[in-house]
Amino acid sequence: VESPTYPGMLAIARASGLRPVPVPVDADGVRPELLADAFRASGARVFVCQPLFQNPTGAVLAPARRAEVLRIAREAGAFVVEDDFVRRLAHADAGELPPPLAADDPDGVVVHVSSLTKATSPSFRVCALAARGPALERLRAIQVVDTFFVPRPLQEAALELVGSPAWPRHLRSLTAELKTRRDAMTGALRHRLPELALPHIPSGGYHLWLRLPDGAHESALATAALRAGVALTPGRPYFSAEPPAAHVRLSFAAVAGTAEITEGVRRLRAACDEVLGPGRENGSTPPPGVATLLP
Ligand SMILES: Cc1ncc(COP(=O)(O)O)c(C=O)c1O
Question: Exposed (0-12), middle (13-18) or buried (19+): which is 283, by Cβ within 10 Å?
Fold first, then answer.
């Protein structure tokens, strides 16, 4: 697995009796040379990869690494599960997105997974699996004993939704709103919490991944933030082994708008003062309740 990665993926792996082996991710996605080492050392037969807007880092797998990852997996006799979970949540300034890895895979090494939930609702549980060859046959066989089929009303609702003229409009407004919220959050963080490192500003997805100063305790910060009315996610569960540093993940999905984001960051400043010691805001302090965003 990538490290860090989505804790739900780690939970699924462990529940299936598998042992997740961490392979570090940097600003260009998973590091191919370390992936090759991990395959050699572990004999793993599957690699779960999020090439686009990786959760939690937001990294996009660099063009030169895409073929490398596929070659390394193929040579190890392994499959790549491509978790393409936020393709529809690109920000308005993301530019052209790279195609799925599965598009460059002629021989069925990649199993591509995507779902409608992120662009619609968490309870709209419709997903798509795309695979070729023996992997597809095995997945078909498992489905017969697993889900059997997606309920018909849900299938009808999904088809009606994605086939309606409102669907592309919805996706356009989603990407515009996500960009606005990301900019509001990054601006407020730079202004109020300069000591939190934001190594990568993503152009897709609905959260930011921040590194805490050395020695800071992410769970203490999460508790203090909650007391101040801000829910954040500690970084530890995203690592399948010892993390290199303390992190937190801040989501901008479940808010009413940008005013809540700037207010949330203001409260997070208070929580950080309590846990990390008083910090220094950039520029002058805005009056309480007035949101100031940097460009
Ligand atoms: C990387 C990643 N994959 C998969 C999922 C699950 O997606 P779904 O809501 O479609 O079950 C999530 C949910 O947050 C995720 O972050």
Answer: exposed
Q: What average pLDDT does this structure show over 28-33?
A: 98
DSSP 3-state helix, strand, coil percentages of the chain (rounded to 5)? 45, 15, 45
Query: Residue range 66-85: average pLDDT?
Result: 97
198-226 residue pLDDT tens: 999 999 999 999 999 999 999 999 999 99
* Closest ligand 1 atom number to CA of residue 83: 3
211/22 Cα distance (integer angstroms): 19
CB proximity list for 106: less than 8 A, separation 6 or greater:
none
Number of alpha helices (DSSP H) and beta strands (DSSP E) in the chain: 8, 10
CA of 230 to the centre of ligand 1 (A): 22
DSSP state letter for 55? T
Residue 133, sorted as left (phi over 0), alpha (psi -120 to 50) or beta, turns out to be left
Of all protein residues, the one whose alpha carbon is nearest to atom 6 of ligand 1 is 85
Place of tokens 């993301």: 94
Tracing tokens 């063009």 back to the chain, one arrives at 63
Distance in Å, CA 113 to ligand 1 centroid? 10
Contact 247, 238 (CB under 8 A): yes
Domains and CATH numbers, the chain: 2-163 (3.40.640.10), 168-276 (3.90.1150.10)
Q: Ligand 1 centroid to 280 CA: how many Å?
A: 36
3-class DSSP assignment, residue 82: strand
**Residue 289 pLDDT:** 36
Q: Which residues line the pocket of ligand 1, CB cutoff 6 A? A: 6, 8, 50, 55, 83, 85, 115, 117-118, 122, 127
Specify the 3-state DSSP secondary structure of 75.
helix
